Amino acid sequence: MSAVRGSVAAGFEPVREAFQRVIDDAVGGAAFSVYRRGVPLVWLCGGRADPGAGAPWRPDTLVVLFSGTKGIAATVAAMLMAHGLLDPDRPVCEYWPEFGAAGKRGVRVHHVLAHSAGLPYVDPEPPDRLDNAANAAALAAQAPLWPPGERVAYHALTYGYLVAELARRVTGHSIGTLVRDLLAEPHGLDLHLGAAPELDGRLARVAAAPDYRISTFLTDPSRRATVERIYGPVPFDELANSVDFRRAQLAGASAVGTADSMARLYDLIAAGAVLDPERLRTATRTWSEGLDAINDRPVRFGLGYELDDPIGTYGPPAATRHSGAFGHSGAGGGRHGAWPEHGLGFSFTTNDLRSEDTDTRASSLLDALWHALDGHC
Question: pLDDT confidence of 375, banded at 50, 70, 90?
Answer without folding.
Answer: low
